[in-house]
Amino acid sequence: MHNRRQHEPDPISLDPLTQAALGASVGGVVAGRKLGLGRALAWGAVAGALPDIDLLANIGDDPFLNLRHHRGVTHALWFAPVFGSALGWLLWRWRRRAGPDPGWAPWVRLMMLSMLSHPLLDLFTHYGTQLWAPFSDQRFALPAVPAVDPAYTSILLLGLIGAWIGRQRFRQVLGVALMVSTAYLGVGLACNVRVETQVRQQLVEEGVVFERVGVFPTFMQLPLRRVVVVGGGEVRVGFVSAWRACRVEWGPVGRLPSAAELAALLKTEQGRTFAWFTNRWLAVATAGGANLRYSDLRFGFSREPAEGLWSVTLNLDPATVPVYANQRPTFDWQTVAELFAAAFPSGCAVWRGRSPAPV
Hints:
With 359 residues, the protein is α+β, with helices and mostly antiparallel strands. The protein contains ten helices and eight strands. The protein has two domains: 16-142, no CATH class; 194-326, no CATH class.
């Protein structure tokens, strides 16, 4: 297991290859005929990855700054129409003397729509995207796909390869790839609906009081979902595949922060940032002495609620600023094989998860 890294930022963002592939696909469809396929694909890829420049805000060693600003202004819905259009116009001014001038419209359309594809795709993960920043810091999330999903990326890459080989029909090929990849996102949402319906029925049968049920993707595949159930001050975590309707086997019962423990966290700017980032999906556990560890329930590979990927530790006596930590299990081929076996089970074997490094 990897040791914790106390002050290192650890964002979850769709990998640059996926964002670039989506931007290139959009660029090829909307501007390939006017600008040439190669040019449209190349600049579409650049525009598709560009909103993640907000990661530069995390050049320092403050992880809370990253949590606050990543998927912020550059991911807002207004950013692409404004800056994408401006960048497209500048590219037109720069490139118009290099050959036949197609006009400014194809360049503006290319950069604006390719750039807009980035936050729209990020919306379908459960990290949360500030679509109205800086006017609102509300985080929007449709937890359809994990941040790394080879199947989704492969659909786009195959479309790009097919478009390059069959240039006479590149728009049709890219259009099909975009439609199939969008349908894939819909399948991810359908997985959540199926799992949540199944889990709610199971909870009623078990007589478990619940107030909130969260269903989240895991890693590298679509069906295996992390389920978080909150109710009566308690929290339960389990894993289930949408591929096969099996009962969830819950891990140890954890607890939610009490009113006093939540108030203690919210006293500091760092604590408020963490609570806001998690959308209050928080579990709390004693971490020795007067230390409390608050964990993000949405991300993790353990059924122990207090073993989330991200957490902060707060010392109540004397009161201190929260300390950020992340815990990641080692990702090796065995872990990946276990995830895929749990995602596509032949029977109702329960995946018990993997614990992170000791705290």
